[in-house]
């Protein structure tokens, strides 16, 4: 199927949301080993905000968006695992598939590692052409909007909790930013694997909504002392694992609430990258500090297995039209969301 143009959200310079515009963009040609997707919805992440504001090395112009869901429109002649009409979710990790790390199942260690919407054009478009490795069959019980809110946060959270922190049944996990996309799915993964979860959020309303995710304890960090509350809950023992993605504002508390032998796993620093570390505290308490970026292809498949069995689900806050991409960016930047912000992509604009 030949298509000459598609409609996409795009920015040509870094800046505020007003640098985003809706444009007609030439379509690349479908090759033998690629798949053409008609996008129905795209999920937003804080990554979209950082890239729009300016990350060194981003090639402009850029179509943002890492997550997404849609329908297979056409396939190259070498494709056998997908066919026209298949409903799919986008797996946003890019990797070579040939190096030692990829062959060992550590695709996020690949020297060619990338992410859709960062290292190449993303999902906020009517169409996208990707490889087989970027597609997962969409569960039948989800809408396109729900499916579009799953991939990046689930892949990231699963990698953090299972492959990096190695959570075990009965352990206590503290999760910051419980109302965020990565936090809300992280709570569900930890609970599905038998952990006790202490969730932290920033308002009464968000804490109320977190209750639906089955967190065992919920703390409002704007009205309660997180350290004191956590130590009371754990009978002064502390937690086994801290799930970090906030960074500078929460780091000191995260380190203090860990029990002896505890692990802190971090995938982000939304409040800033600077953090102080007391080395004597680390070796005396025998702590582990673990970095995590995205996740392996296997992490995506295992998280999808939990999704298919309905043990976890994407949490959707709101849906914006592609034409309202500027409003969607402003809303996500406000920090008022609970779960994922989704961009609905009409067939015709």
Quick description:
The protein is an alpha/beta fold and 349 residues long. It has helices at residues 46-53, 100-103, 144-148, 151-164, 181-192, 204-210, 226-233, 251-256, 279-285, 297-308, 325-334; strands at 5-11, 20-26, 35-43, 69-75, 87-90, 93-94, 114-115, 127-130, 135-137, 172-175, 196-201, 217-220, 239-244, 258-266, 288-291, 316-321, 340-344. The chain is 27% helix and 26% strand.
Description of the molecule:
The chain has two domains: 5-150 and 314-344, Quinone Oxidoreductase, Chain A, domain 1; 154-291, Rossmann fold (3-Layer(aba) Sandwich), CATH 3.40.50.720. The chain starts with a strand and ends in a 5-residue tail after the last strand. It is built from eleven helices and 17 strands. Strands 3, 4, 5, 8, 9, 16 and 17 form a seven-stranded mixed sheet that branches. The chain has helices at residues 46-53, 100-103, 144-148, 151-164, 181-192, 204-210, 226-233, 251-256, 279-285, 297-308, 325-334; strands at residues 5-11, 20-26, 35-43, 69-75, 87-90, 93-94, 114-115, 127-130, 135-137, 172-175, 196-201, 217-220, 239-244, 258-266, 288-291, 316-321, 340-344. It is globular and about 65 Å long. A hairpin with an 8-residue loop joins strand 1 (5-11) and strand 2. It has 349 residues and is α/β, with parallel strands linked by helices. The longest helix has 14 residues, at 151-164.
